[in-house]
Amino acid sequence: MIELNNAVQHLRQFRMRIVIAGIFVFSCFALLAGRLAFLQFWHYRRYAAQADENRISIVPVAPSRGMIIDRNGVVLAENRPAYTLEITASKIDGALDDMIGRLSSVVAIGAADKRRFKKLLEYSKSFHSLPIRLHLTEAEVARFVVQRFRFPGVEVRTRWSRRYPLQATAAHAIGYVGRISAQDQARIAAASARNEHGPGPYDPRLNANNYKGSHTIGKTGIEQSYQTELHGQTGFEAVEVTAGGRPVRTLWRSPATPGNRLGLTLDSGLQQAAERAFAGRRGALVAIEPATGEILAFVSAPGFDPNLFVDGIDQIHWDELNTSPDRPLLNRALRGTYPPGSTYKPFMALAALTLGKRTPQWGFYDSGRYTLAGHVFRDDKPGGHGWVNMARSIVVSCGTYYYILAHEMGVNAIAEFMKPWGFGQLTGVDLEGEARGVLPSTEWKKRAYRRPAQQKWYEGETISLGVGQGYNAFTMLQLAHAVATLANHGVAMTPHLVRDIRDAHTDIKRAASSANRRINVKQQDMEVIKRAMADVMTRGTAAASFRGAPYQAAGKTGTAQVYSLRGGKYHAYQVARERRDHALFIAFAPLDQPVIALALIVENGGWAWQSAAPIARQTLDYYLVDRFKTPLQTVESIARESAPGSARGE
């Protein structure tokens, strides 16, 4: 008989299956528990950090840029609150471009605004609030607020905006800020890497993360050279965000530290007086306090309004500045190099005394010409100046005297003497981009030219150096530095623009240092030169401009050829403007206790006694006389006015 249903066997099979299934389920749970334990205990920190990164976003808080004031407390650069229209891309509904189009019907948004916003968006996260329109008027703010409900993710905020209240005054010294470019970002990254791995102490201000949230950076002048001091330190906010990137709440906040306040050596009143004196002419002027090296005025004319660059200059203004034949963006005081002309003669005379080539009494009868190897070098006065000694050679600016002297000294002796005075050398001024210029020597010419014929030095080339022509090419900063050193009895002080730095966090003021060195020149020799330069102002080439001055000054006029006359006679009215001679002037005052020394040039100005000397007179008049009559608007006076209840070769 066949058994069709064996209950015992089926029960045994069923139980076996239950055991196998249980073992399988238990193994699965064991694996899950093991994996859970593995993640929770061995990799907890790793995955917890990743979760927090997805949940928490670190949002930068840009610091307020440091203020810049002059030596009297007059504000030169500050921050003013401005209304900005900002978009948080993660909060908007629909397409970003569509929303911007609708927004343009309420507040004017130009093509330049859109381009700037998209560039900012490329370097930021979607939950960052980015400006699409800057400097809204109160009417524009009111129009937007009424229709704000139509634009989720868009709001009006108040941001600090850089402002230069004196506009073009000292623009080349102060510089300006502008939007951070790709080149700026590369420099920031390079500086951060050097700071991280370099041998010096670590400075958190140089870290690349310190620029997150910042949209502007110093581009030129003090704004660029002292970027680290002025920028401050970025703060941060920890913001909880949803999976879609929408901010939920602020978890914690680290406030930003404002930038440090810079006190400059400039006197804004003197700066404005000197700029006015140029009256639209091209040129440069540098005035220095001899005893300290502090730069009192730093003029490059014409100038420009740095406010144009803060939010990005428009194409019309850029073309106007960039294509102007007067080149207003060129920093002539720092980068313009010029032959010094007859302003070189006092230093040539001092070299002759120091090297024993001349005595003050040595003289000769000047016929107005000097011949070397058949070539005639002519003085500007036909027939010459008659009997000329050292003092008279400076007073009447006798070219023949210095033709002979240069030939006797030789190019290398001249270069060796002039080098310590700073000619053709970097002065060490605290501005980036200083030009070195050219102090000629036989070695310089070998380096400057490739062809052997060009490398050879000819005696005739030395003759021109004696009157500040030829290969000589110096900046007005170098010339002013040399004059200040002469006025300071041969003690050279490093010229500088920053007087002190006030820490925004501790309010402690740090004074800027100025290195000094003494040039090995006899005091009695320098006195001979100074007295001769004083006579220039009373009975020499500058007498007309300084007649009746209530102080005693010392100075020297200079005219530098722009192109060769090839033996012809110079007549300014027959020459195109751009080919006319440059006019130069150097001076210091008062004679016995100098407090100011200056050098200036008027490009294509012609005779210096006509164009350059009057500028020097106006500049010295202001600093020595007029400034004591002019009230200053300082930081403290502005605060008082703003207080509640207050009223408003020659």
Automatic annotation (TrEMBL):
Keywords (alphabetical) are: Carboxypeptidase, Cell inner membrane, Cell membrane, Cell shape, Cell wall biogenesis/degradation, Glycosyltransferase, Hydrolase, Membrane, Metal-binding, Peptidoglycan synthesis, Protease, Transferase, Transmembrane, Transmembrane helix, Zinc
Membrane-topology descriptor:
Single-pass membrane protein
State any GO BP term from the record: cell wall organization
* Entry's Gene Ontology cellular component terms: plasma membrane
**Presence of the UniProt keyword Protease in the record:** yes
Q: Which reaction does it catalyse?
A: Preferential cleavage: (Ac)2-L-Lys-D-Ala-|-D-Ala. Also transpeptidation of peptidyl-alanyl moieties that are N-acyl substituents of D-alanine
| Cited function | Catalyzes cross-linking of the peptidoglycan cell wall.
The molecule here is called Peptidoglycan D,D-transpeptidase MrdA
Instruction: State the species of origin.
Output: Candidatus Glomeribacter gigasporarum BEG34
